[in-house]
Each structure stands twice: as structure tokens, then as C-alpha cells.
UniProtKB/TrEMBL annotation:
One of its GO terms (molecular function) is NAD binding. It comes from Neptunicella marina. Keywords: Oxidoreductase. It comes from the Bacteria. PROSITE patterns: IDH_IMDH (PS00470). This is Isocitrate dehydrogenase. NCBIfam families: PRK08997.1. The lineage of its organism: Bacteria, Pseudomonadati, Pseudomonadota, Gammaproteobacteria, Alteromonadales. InterPro entries: IsoCit/isopropylmalate_DH_CS, IsoPropMal-DH-like_dom.
Length: 334
């Protein structure tokens, strides 16, 4: 049967970069059927809900979703939609690869790092949130389970093995966060021993930040807990030219949501300035997930050519063009 994909254009720059990705998927002959659904501010304005039931049903039904960034309104009563989606569909792993392209403004070349971020536990578990009545004290709970840690670290090693990668670095803060990060590190060491063919390393998160900036080529796969993974993956995006270059896949046991790492970029929304690369690369991850590696490779190499020749690239890449011109340059090559 024809693969159906749930598409959430999202807020801000979302609709324009998602449109770019869909045109490219169609151009390489993917033959998907798309079910469009709303979420975020767009949905709130239309239906009075950030995450309408129909959207949830479509995510569940089709199992594969391509999603633009969503604006989470700041303030009382709104939990992040992304956090809700990841929890609701048990999307326990967040795979965030960064890859250098020549011709960007990046400070490094030949970067190829995948951050595997635990996506449902840790500081983002949403548990134990208490604010005292007078607002002078606030607390929240971080929860790590052996099951959750084992699942994510095993996912990282299996991915490393499948993709012929050499090294997995577990990043933690077990020296201070002895109970939570301590459990994560303990489990990471145990899992690592089951993969003698892959080099296992471990690093404390603050040192890891410094090492990523000073000597990023020592890293291959990084596996870590939710908050650290969120931060480190943006740092990694900075190594290859910024957030416009960084895709992410939220993967559970039978459901997946592919998206850009960045947000809705309100500062450039509606100006045809957004770099669509991150969402295009998210759709490449989606094709790989669907065992359509040949089409994924076609898109990746067209992207490489557009960026490396600087043919109609966007401002964040040092070019002078907009989302639509960048997309046209991609479509010509495909
Ligand atoms: P942001 O990622 O939207 O923007 C940060 C900076 O990067 C801005 O200067 C923006 O112009 C630039 N940028 C981001 N994507 C770009 C692209 N494709 N091309 C060129 N430049 C790009 O982060 P910010 O401003 O902190 O968040 C804005 C909203 O997005 C918030 O409501 C936040 O909650 C939401 N958000 C949503 C995410 C998601 O849906 N996955 C992830 C992160 C934030
Ligand atoms: Mg983030």
C-alpha cells in the first residue's frame, strides 16, 4: 500500500520550509500520500487547541510524521507540544546528526557527529513541578529509569553498529547528579560492554562542551540524557553552520516524527529567509527510516552540491537568496 505521511507545517517559518521539503520528496518520486494536520499556534487560532485530537489520530494512524517547528506560547498552562508528543507516542530516542558541508560559514570541516538524546525522561519528565504560593521557591524532578537508560544506550550502539560507526561517548554529570546521572552512566557502561566492536568512551557534560569546541573530530556518536542532549545538539549544529543545518528524528518502537532541531524563528518568519536544509535533512532521515536509502542519497547529494557551489543559498549560509530560490536550485538538480 502507498505510504501515508502526516505533515504538520507548524508555525512561523514552518509552512515555507515544509513546503520546500515536500516539493523535493515529490520530485524524487516518493509517491507518498500526505495528510496535513495542524498543531501549535496555528491550531490554537483555528480550533482553540494547541494539539487537536485529529492531529493526534493522524500521527497514530500513519506512524510517520514530518513536522515543522511549533511555537509554544510562554506562560501558565501551556506545556511544550514537542515534549507532549514525544511522551504520548513514546518517542524515546531523538537522533540528531550534524554533517559538514563545504561553503557554509562554519568554523570546522569534516564534522560528522550524531547526538542520540533520551527523549522522555530526565529533567523534561515534567514530574514533581511545584511552585510555592508566594512564588519564591520552585522545584521539579528529574527521573531516570534503568529501562529508559538501557533502551536509549542500546539504541545508540545498535545504530552505531548498523551505520559502521566506531565510537560511542556517553555524556553525563554523575560526579554531581549522583543518583540520576549516576544511574545513566552505570547502565551506559554495562551496555557498552556488550559491544566490544565499538569503542566506548564517557565524558562529563561540561568538559564535553569544551571538547566539542576545541576538538570536535574526536566525537562520533554521543548518547546522553534529555536536557544535556537538547543543549549539546544545538552546540553541534553550531559546528556545521547553525540551526538551519540540523535535523532530528524522534523515534519510538513503532512511530516516528521527523523535524528540524530549530524553532519557528519568529524573527525571520514570513520573509522568505529561512534555510530549508534542516527540514530537508529531516526528510532524508525519514526516507532512511522507511528503507528508501537510494532516494535519501539523491537528495543529500543535491543538497551538498547546492550548498558547496553556493548556488542560491540563504543568508545564514552566506548567500543572498531566499527559501524559494534555494528550493528551486534543489529541484533543478533532482
Ligand atoms: P529558533 O530556533 O526558532 O531561532 C533561533 C535563531 O536561529 C533565530 O535567530 C532564527 O532566525 C535562527 N534560525 C532558526 N531556524 C533557522 C532556519 N531554518 N534558517 C535560518 N535561520 C534560522 O529558536 P527560538 O527563537 O528560541 O524559539 C522560537 C520558538 O520556537 C519558541 O516558541 C520555541 O518554543 C519554539 N521552538 C520549537 C521547536 C520545535 O518545534 N521543534 C524547537 C525549538 C524552539
Ligand atoms: Mg532544543
Amino acid at each position: 500500500a502507498q505510504q501515508r505521511i502526516t505533515v504538520i507545517p507548524g508555525d512561523g517559518i514552518g509552512p515555507s520550509i515544509i513546503d520546500s521539503a515536500i516539493q523535493i520528496l515529490d520530485k524524487v518520486g516518493c509517491d507518498f500520500e500526505y495528510d496535513y494536520a495542524d498543531a501549535g499556534i496555528t491550531a490554537l487560532e483555528k480550533d482553540g487547541e494547541l494539539l487537536p485530537a485529529r492531529t493526534l489520530e493522524l500521527i497514530e494512524q500513519n506512524k510517520v510524521t514530518l513536522k515543522g517547528p511549533l511555537t509554544t506560547p510562554v506562560g501558565e498552562g501551556f506545556t511544550s507540544i514537542n515534549v507532549s508528543l514525544r511522551k504520548q507516542f513514546k518517542l524515546y530516542s531523538n537522533v540528531r546528526p550534524v554533517l559538514s558541508f563545504k561553503g557554509t560559514q562554519a568554523r570546522y570541516e569534516n564534522i560528522d557527529i550524531i547526538t542520540v538524546r533520551e527523549n522522555t525522561e530526565g529533567m523534561y519528565s515534567g514530574l514533581g513541578q511545584v511552585v510555592s504560593e508566594d512564588g519564591s521557591e520552585a522545584q521539579a524532578m528529574s527521573k531516570i529509569t534503568r529501562e529508559g537508560a538501557e533502551r536509549i544506550v542500546t539504541f545508540a550502539y545498535e545504530m552505531a553498529r548498523r551505520e559502521g560507526r566506531k565510537k560511542v561517548t556517553a555524556v553525563h554529570k554523575a560526579n554531581i547528579l549522583k543518583s540520576t546521572s549516576g544511574l545513566f552512566l552505570k547502565v551506559a557502561r554495562e551496555v557498552g560492554e556488550r559491544y566490544p566492536d565499538i569503542e566506548s568512551a564517557e565524558m562529563i557534560v561540561d568538559n564535553c562542551c569544551m571538547q566539542l569546541v576545541m576538538n570536535p573530530h574526536q566525537f562520533d556518536v554521543i548518547v546522553t540524557t534529555n536536557l544535556f542532549g537538547d543543549i549539546l545538539s544545538d552546540l553541534c549544529a553550531g559546528l556545521v553552520g547553525g540551526l538551519g543545518m540540523a535535523p532530528g528524528a524522534n523515534i519510538g518502537s513503532d512511530c516516528a516524527i521527523f523535524e528540524a532541531v530549530h524553532g519557528s524563528a519568529p524573527d525571520i518568519a514570513g520573509k522568505n529567509l529561512a534555510n530549508p536544509t534542516s527540514v530537508i535533512l529531516a526528510s532524508v532521515q525519514m526516507l532512511e527510516y522507511l528503507n528508501m536509502g537510494d532516494k535519501a542519497e539523491k537528495i543529500r547529494s543535491a543538497l551538498k552540491d547546492v550548498i558547496e557551489t553556493g548556488d542560491r543559498t540563504t543568508r545564514d549560509l552566506g548567500g543572498e537568496h531566499g527559501t524559494t530560490d534555494f528550493t528551486a536550485a534543489m529541484l533543478e538538480r533532482l
